[in-house]
Amino acid sequence: MADGSNPAFDAELTDAVDARGAGAKLRSLGKINPRLAPQLARTMLAKTRDNDSAPAFAAYSEAKGFEFTSAWAANNIPFVAPLLRDFMAKRPAGGRKVRYMEIGAYEGRNLAFMDWMFPDRLDVTVIDPWFDEGLNPEEKYHAVEPRFHRNMARTTFGQVATHKGFSTYELPKMLQAGETFDLIYVDGSHTALAVMIDLCCCASLLEVGGMMVLDDYWHDISEIGGPGVKQAVDHFHAAFGRYFEVAAVYRQVALVKTAEIPR
């Protein structure tokens, strides 16, 4: 669990942005959403940081034989682990499984982390296009989806409901089918248009009392150019913030749904 340390706020804030470089960090900080700034400060200064789970999960992953080629999620663990534990504590073990959806699973590292924290407690749905000739034609991407399925076979999930495709097409189908979720992790496309579609659909799919964790908040320019995640999150919160409580802000933004959104 957290060691209770509280380093200088400026250092923590710099680390919270991401590893893209000082120029990108300063640009993002200069455009900070004033609605989210107070929660960013509270999250950075909180003493509930969990500095032990990242190395513990890494050791677990090696022992289980997971095939991960990246560790992108590791920097989020100290912040998100306490948040997830508090969320899951309100849903006692032994009841129905928590309906969890992840948009952008890649190799399944974040899913494996969720399973490590909450074994046998999640009913999992995944959306990911994995390989797409027009989007990621590089040869290395051919191996990602098979690696994902091998990794999932090492979890306690059992059957994972997998939707192979882009979330902008798959999420409306879920809305039409009347699906709902308790916990949603959004880490799909980084273009503002696609992120906004993801957020609006997920806001409707999420049960009241459920939580959405939105990754890569500080990315204000997408990989292919144009506005990125930050603009979409800021505009979404400006329009629908009254229906959510901001639980945390760091590299990610965690929102808890407090009321249904009229639609």
TrEMBL record:
GO terms for molecular function: methyltransferase activity. It comes from the Bacteria. GO terms for biological process: methylation. This is Class I SAM-dependent methyltransferase. Signal peptide: none annotated. Coiled coil: none annotated. The keyword ATP-binding does not apply. InterPro entries: SAM-dependent_MTases_sf (IPR029063).
